[in-house]
């Protein structure tokens, strides 16, 4: 059974309206990510868009909270909560994605695949208020909380995340070269 969260949480109303207007343009994924990133910059919520309980996180892994799913599945808004040191595997995505940091610092490593290995091509420390967006192909990365406290980010995906459970298309287990 698919859980559809079509009621907009307080603090997300203007963002959801803006993202809906961008998605309704039906541009390519890169342009959609660029335009959705502009909407997130303009309508960045505060960490309290998540409940106090949701903001605690989990000691064993980073946690994803689906906050909104557009009817028809055109996009989803998800809050991710990371305790210190928690990290994703190196992965890519099934669709475009935009994220903004609401609390803490998230360290991102960017990669490209070259035959039998990954080449690290960039590193970003994303601080509160910073927004980034991307679209496949060329979206291989790993994210970790490098701070001493909980980090919270808001992610907007171009799909019904409650239906597919994750934005990750594939995880990479290849040697990494700099």
From TrEMBL:
Alphabetized Pfam families for the sequence: CDO_I
A GO term, aspect molecular function: dioxygenase activity
Keyword field contains Protein biosynthesis: no
Keywords of this entry: Dioxygenase, Iron, Metal-binding, Oxidoreductase
Family the UniProt entry places it in: Belongs to the cysteine dioxygenase family.
PANTHER family from the UniProt entry: CYSTEINE DIOXYGENASE, CYSTEINE DIOXYGENASE TYPE 1
Protein name per Swiss-Prot or TrEMBL: Cysteine dioxygenase family protein
């Amino acid at each position: 059974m698919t859980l559809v969260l079509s009621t907009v949480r307080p603090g997300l109303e203007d963002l959801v309206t803006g993202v809906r207007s961008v998605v309704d343009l039906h541009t390519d994924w890169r342009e959609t990510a660029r335009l959705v990133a502009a909407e997130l910059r303009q309508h960045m919520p505060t960490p309290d868009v998540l409940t106090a309980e949701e903001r605690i996180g989990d000691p064993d892994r980073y946690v994803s909270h689906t906050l909104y799913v557009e009817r028809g599945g055109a996009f989803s808004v998800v809050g991710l909560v990371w305790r210190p040191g928690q990290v994703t595997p190196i992965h890519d995505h099934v669709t475009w994605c935009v994220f903004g940091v609401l609390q803490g610092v998230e360290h991102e490593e960017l990669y490209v695949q070259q035959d039998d290995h990954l080449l690290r091509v960039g590193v970003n420390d994303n601080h509160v208020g910073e927004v980034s967006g991307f679209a496949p192909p060329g979206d291989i990365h790993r994210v970790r909380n490098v701070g001493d406290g909980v980090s919270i980010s808001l992610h907007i995906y171009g799909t019904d995340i409650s239906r597919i459970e994750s934005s990750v298309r594939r995880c990479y287990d290849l040697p990494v070269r700099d």
